[in-house]
Amino acid sequence: MSPCYLKASQDSKLHEVCFIWHCLKRETNHAVAMKVAVFGASGMVGSAFCQAAVHRGFVTDGFSHRHPIKVKGMASVSQVDLRDLNVLERPLLDGWPQVIVNAAAISEPDRVKEDAAISRVINIDLPHRLAEISNHVGARFLHLSTDLVFDGSAPPYRSTDRPNPLSLYGKQKLEAEEAILNCCPENVVVLRITIVNGNSPSGRRSVHEKLLRAIAKGRRPTLFSDEFRQPCSCANVADALVELCQRPNLNGLFHWGGVERLSRFELGRSILQRFALPEKFVESGSRRAFPGEDERPADLAFNLDPLEGKLNTRPSTLAEQLEEMSIPDDLYDWFKEHTADTSCFLRKFSIN
Ligand SMILES: NC(=O)c1ccc[n+]([C@@H]2O[C@H](COP(=O)([O-])OP(=O)(O)OC[C@H]3O[C@@H](n4cnc5c(N)ncnc54)[C@H](OP(=O)(O)O)[C@@H]3O)[C@@H](O)[C@H]2O)c1
């Protein structure tokens, strides 16, 4: 018989029973509510992860840099400039999270080339330091990497295949992977993901947002019909990460992506069809005709074994990814003017 039940038999001590019950309940809640620190929480994948983590009931502390974190229900949000790695220790040692998720990065290859030194700090030194701190506080560490660690000449790629990055961005991401896995091979996941579809907090980051913005400005983008990717969605990656937070037996380097491999042109055309926009808005071209081809892997189809067989989360299909896509608010009037069917996208209003 539990001490709590014994006390329940004495009426005069009923208030004490209630007190103990509340304490036990709080302790139980505390035990199931995982505490997670998220870096890059204002980014496309980071914010999707925060949303999924809050939804799952995790106590979620988010860190961003220039942009505020827009997810509701976060335990805390902070803006920090991680070019100074000294700012990392205090919040992590004070907060003592069970899981640290790193979605912070300079994630656009052109930006990496423009500022290689700062990119090096954010893309290599930061994850390395986070891995060390995770090890120190006994936290699980989940880090995101990219399909661009491969050269695209021998798809589909397994996580055991030999990387050969063509771009500086790919080289930095590979160096980070090695630093993390050398530093702490246990309680760590390095998750290589493919190009990410979905809605970014800025409305300017994802494939469909960039494409529609370019068209709205009067351009006719050329999309390569001979460059292949296997897109995933940020919401689906977030679900996989949430599951990985709770699967401490899954450690190491894994691949995650969507179901279908398709060319950039096929993806662009599917996006236009999804929003009932004219296909003539884009044109098909060959990567060979464009400068910088030597830094663009031709085919980054991914083999998702063994993770696909181990997670309950399923990789998302292109149809599911297209369904998730929204028209950014500031493009809505342009969309209404050009679409053949306004009902193919219903604008969502948030009620605060
Ligand atoms: N998006 C893709 O298609 C794709 C594909 C494969 C792999 N990945 C990988 O997935 C991860 C997430 O990518 P993403 O597309 O979500 O990136 P993103 O949207 O560009 O977001 C990057 C995040 O990093 C933060 N950050 C950058 N510099 C910082 C600094 N100095 N201090 C603190 N935070 C800083 C940004 O904060 P602020 O915005 O607040 O400045 C933002 O929250 C990255 O590791 C990327 O390599 C992405």
Keywords:
single chain; alpha/beta; Rossmann fold; two-stranded parallel sheet; 39% helix; disordered N terminus; binds NADP nicotinamide-adenine-dinucleotide phosphate
The gist of it:
The chain has a single domain (about 35-345), classed as Rossmann fold.
Number of strands: 13
The hetero compounds bound to this protein are:
NADP nicotinamide-adenine-dinucleotide phosphate
Question: Regarding CATH, which class?
Answer: Alpha Beta
Mean pLDDT: 91
List the helices and strands and how they pair.
Layout (H helix, E strand, L loop, with lengths): L2 H6 L5 H19 L2 E5 L4 H12 L3 E6 L11 E4 L9 H7 L3 E4 L6 H6 L1 H22 L2 E7 L21 H16 L4 E6 L2 E2 L9 H10 L5 E3 L3 E2 L2 E2 H12 L6 E5 L5 E2 H11 L8 E3 L21 H4 L7 H7 L7 H7 L14
Parallel strand pairs: 1-2, 1-4, 2-3, 4-5, 5-6, 6-11, 7-10, 8-13
Antiparallel strand pairs: 9-12
Bound molecules: NADP nicotinamide-adenine-dinucleotide phosphate.
